[in-house]
Amino acid sequence: MSDGSPRFLTLADVGEVLNVTVRQVYALVRSGELKGIQIGGRNQWRVEKDQLEDYIQRQYARAEQAVAELGEGDLADADLSSEDDATV
Predict the structure, then answer these.
(1) pLDDT at residue 88 above 70?
(2) CA distances from 55 to 41, 66, 73 (A)
(3) Gap between the Cα atoms of 12 and 60, Å rounded
(4) Quick one: 28 exposed, middle or buried, by C-beta within 10 A (0-12, 13-18, 19+)?
(5) Of 13, 25, 37, 58, which cross-links 9 as Cys (Cβ 3.0–4.6 Å)?
(6) Is 8 helix (H, G, I), strand (E, B) or coil?
(7) For the purposes of burial, counting CB atoms within 10 Å of the CB of 35, is it exposed (0-12), middle (13-18) or buried (19 or more)?
């Protein structure tokens, strides 16, 4: 962590990185898909930068697998929009 940036991110910071809402980030943390820690009471959650990067890499691997399973011909028919993805 010698670059001077903070080790932990707020849920709002994570949402900004992933371009999703804070509610969606909270759902990811609560489900265990994204590891976070609760600081004190009052729903103060933080996500370590390394955990966010691990989550992103897992999502890339998952997407890669989904594309491989679809095959090239089916990719054009797949719904890849994220606008309606309420569950992330």
Answers:
(1) no
(2) 25, 16, 28
(3) 22
(4) buried
(5) 13
(6) strand
(7) middle
Q: How far, CA to CA in Å, does 73 sit from each of 12, 34, 67?
A: 38, 32, 10
Number of Cβ atoms within 10 Å of the Cβ of 22? 15
Q: What is the pLDDT of residues 32-62, one digit of tens each?
A: 999 999 998 788 999 999 999 999 999 999 9
Query: From CA 70, how far away is CA 62, in angstroms rounded?
Result: 12
Order of strands across the sheet with 37-38?
8-10, 45-48, 37-38
Task: Please answer whether residues 80 and 66 qualify as being in contact, where contact means their C-beta atoms are separated by less than 8 angstroms.
Answer: no
